């Protein structure tokens, strides 16, 4: 049967696959797709009699914190958050991320919002998933113009956390900490190794198990549309309305 | 004698002098928009904004209205409605000084003031361009043996005391205690500020200290210098637990603010409303 899976739904499904072993997933600012993925993983975990806690920072309802905005960072520093999502206006081949601006800082050509919590979260959360929908030579660059948070650090720096995956609307990469390099792991439909090489500004390895992104099955899509969509509309109403009309 | 000072919004605005360091709450903490409107009407200049840890329409409006010379923040954004256009352009044109920071550092600098210690250490951040561009931050080698890492560099952040904090909340009680719910960052801001003014939806004839639930979620009058009753005082931002943000209005703003002339037109209407 044809489920007419939307691009956003496919991405949500990819992210949900990466959260299966977690106990606590937190989701920060401007992240409707990661937010939906975390809630989907939580719902599906119930089928395995597993409890996944989800904290959506911009939601009052799907939130475990009562001690003010600093609790997210304290909680992460204590190792109580397994997965967090970060984005970037630029991401480079060493997994450095830039959320500040393009051009030479501080005289940037184009200014973006700022680094948010990334300079701490990138260091302390064991599984950071980088998520940037636009996959192009201007977003995936050789070197970022400003390092909001570095992908890797020297051995003497306290760093239990760091990048594990990078998902775009075209591909999923794994990050190899030792090699300081991404490797291509999954391709979206209609993409090829060549198309990804052409659209990626940095060099990357190719995983020996490179394959197409798994499509969500009927059960997952139904859970997403019937159960998760109304939840998402609580904290990202514009997004939920655009994708699911709720 | 009344147990707290009740002010008009204008009287609060009168307390804001040019050049002060003003505390700015995040969009989820109760943004004092009616106060901000009056502040812009007054034509205050050279404000230094300290955001905990970010600002949305409030900061963007103050910047677009020429009230700000400096901002210390983790982000300025209109959230689902995209970039904060007046902020972005002001930085691109070098009109304001930006002290780029990160959420936990903005919290920690105020927490140092809460404890009246000169600095606060923070892990992470080291090696980022955020850290490298902050000459007021220092890195030392961790002097404690507990970390298990030799020569661990650790970041020290200076204590920051705000001149004035203004935020909007749901209720004050008859003794001037303010209900802040789970928004405890407002307490951090208040503890670290020389003066604190609050606009509230309503003053109610009760005492929050009479029961454990409301006592635990209130900011004691001890920290408050003045209260003003302002209905819908966070509009178009949300007030947690009371009303949602007016997304149509914020969207309208996000479009108008794209250029200075259309921002000016929008503000003419907004300041009159």
Structure annotation, total helices of chain A: 7
Shape of chain B: globular
The total of beta strands of chain A comes to 13
Q: CATH topology of the largest domain in chain B, anyone?
A: Glutaconate Coenzyme A-transferase
Mean pLDDT of chain A: 96
- Total separate domains of chain A: 1
Largest sheet of chain A: 8 strands, mixed
Biggest sheet strand line-up of chain B: 6-4-2-1-10-12-14
Describe this structure as you would to a colleague:
The complex is a heterodimer of chains A (246) and B (273). Chain A has 246 residues and is α/β, with parallel strands linked by helices. Chain A has a single domain (7-244), classed as Glutaconate Coenzyme A-transferase (3-Layer(aba) Sandwich), CATH 3.40.1080. Helix content of chain A is 29%, strand content 22%. An eight-stranded mixed beta sheet of chain A has the order 2-1-3-8-10-11-12-13, with helices on both faces. In chain A, strands 5-4-9 form a three-stranded mixed beta sheet, with no helix packed on it. In chain A, helix 2 packs across helix 6 (218-235) and helix 6 (218-235) runs antiparallel to helix 7 (237-244). The longest helix of chain A has 18 residues, at 218-235. The radius of gyration of chain A is 18 Å and the shape is globular. Chain A starts with 6 loop residues before the first helix and ends with a helix. In chain A, 50% of the residues are buried. Chain B has two domains: 9-102 and 160-272, Glutaconate Coenzyme A-transferase; 119-158, no CATH class. Chain B contains ten helices and 14 strands. The mean pLDDT of chain B is 96. Classes of the chains: A alpha/beta (246), B alpha/beta (273). Chains A and B meet through helix 3, strand 7, helix 4 and helix 7 of A and strand 5, helix 4, helix 5, helix 6 and helix 7 of B.
